[in-house]
Amino acid sequence: MRFLIIGQGLAGTLTGYRLERAGHDVHYVDAPEQMAASAVAAGIVNPITGRRFVKSWRIDELIPEAKAVYTELESLLGVRFWHEMPLIRTLYNRGDRNDWEVRSGDPGYREYMEDQPDPGGIPELTEPVFAYAGVRHAARVDVGTMVAAFREKIVAEGRFLAEEFDYARIETLLGTSKRPEARNERKDLRAFPASHPPRTPEGLPRTLEGPSGTLRGPEYDQIICCEGWRARFNPWFAHLPHGGNKGEVLIVKTKAPLLDRMFKHRVFLVPLADDTYWVGATSENRFDDDSPTPHNRQYLEDRLAEVLKVPYEIIDHRAAVRPTVRDRRLFIGVHPEEPRLAILNGLGTKGASLAPLGSRWLVEHLLEGKAIPAEVDIGRWGA
Ligand SMILES: Cc1cc2nc3c(=O)[nH]c(=O)nc-3n(C[C@H](O)[C@H](O)[C@H](O)COP(=O)(O)OP(=O)(O)OC[C@H]3O[C@@H](n4cnc5c(N)ncnc54)[C@H](O)[C@@H]3O)c2cc1C
Predict the structure, then answer these.
(1) From residue 165, how far is each of 4, 105, 139, 231 by CA, in Å?
(2) Which of 116, 223, 300, 347 is 20 to 30 Å apart from 321, CA to CA?
(3) Ligand 1 contacts CB of residue 147 (under 6 A)
């Protein structure tokens, strides 16, 4: 079968990879001048989250699935992006310590929670804290590296089109006479103008098959929509309650030796492969654009001043929008009236851990007819 994937971020990459692995032809269209969440995320896989130390949804299934697909892709692409590393959390006071200890007695929690972890180089780098707690089986996925390496491969194979997809073309590309409900055509809303320079290297072919190639129709058996937060502009899926949460981060460098673990204090401090730290992130449900702002830069610098006790240099300041959903569950499924149109979205703040299993559920549904779990099936939102 021949598939077209709209949006090659984390969701589009894993879905496409699974389809290719099953022997299908996959083409991709992505607007490279837009900022993608996948290019900004730290990619933390965190089994125990929040102030109440709650186990992440389905984490026992998500971690093995993530490790399997990411390490397989590492071998295919010849780059490393799956990094297993402990996550050290700050306990701020006795109350926190008590909550942590009580929680670790709950069934299924013990294997993820360590009361007296080895903090490694954290005390030399950062201000003293009341106590440390350790999260086991945490990891970091360098999502940006994975997406870029996959893109390089599909560009070289002539299966990538660098272009903003025009939704009016869906009918022609699928050869369908069905149309999205008129009420869903949100012509009033437009993705705000791109605020970033193109991310693609000079000379990237903008077309699928050479300089003059383009999408033709009808030539696809199935179109899969993976546009991240911009899916709200897709008239076919505009009935879904798309959210959006803007996040900003700093990339900083210190002269001290790089940590070999992640640290969560006022902000996350995540060691990156190039000897820098990812520091973040901010979280805003209301935003006017996807650009970094001086206000949030100051906020992150203030948090960093509370955490680091060594001088640091800011290398970069980035922003992107997370594709959130009101009930905090994925969007997976096929369009109620046009089953050849499918969606994988709503990865929210946890795309690195959710996308591996989410893409498997979608692909197994499309290829084998397996049922999508009801809690993530878009059918829960009606037509
Ligand atoms: C600051 C920040 C920190 C984060 N940290 C973490 C973390 O630590 N752990 C974690 O698991 N998750 C994290 N996330 C969330 C994670 O980044 C997302 O869940 C995930 O990357 C979403 O992937 P996606 O493919 O759905 O969307 P995106 O990465 O946004 O990709 C969508 C792609 O579709 C393209 N597109 C959209 N519309 C069109 C169109 N009409 N035509 C062509 N192309 C189009 C876009 O250009 C983009 O490339 C973070 C996000 C942010 C912003």
Answers:
(1) 11, 50, 34, 11
(2) 223
(3) no
Tokens representing 275? 């000897």
Centre of ligand 1 to C-alpha 10, Å, is 7
**Per-residue confidence at 192, pLDDT binned at 50, 70, 90?**
very low
Looking at residue 213, its pLDDT comes to: 57
| Nearest CA, atom 15, ligand 1 | 349
Provide the 10 A C-beta neighbour count for residue 55: 16
Does the CB atom of residue 333 touch ligand 1 within 6 A? no
Atom 37 in ligand 1: residue holding the nearest Cα: 227
Q: Which helix (H) or strand (E) holds 343?
A: strand 341-345
349 close to ligand 1 (CB < 6 Angstrom):
yes
Q: Domain ranges in the chain?
A: 2-40+144-242+325-381, 86-137+245-322
**Mean pLDDT of the residues in the chain:** 91
Q: Give me the mean pLDDT over the 331-341 stretch.
A: 95
Domain at 2-40+144-242+325-381, CATH homologous superfamily: FAD/NAD(P)-binding domain (3.50.50.60)
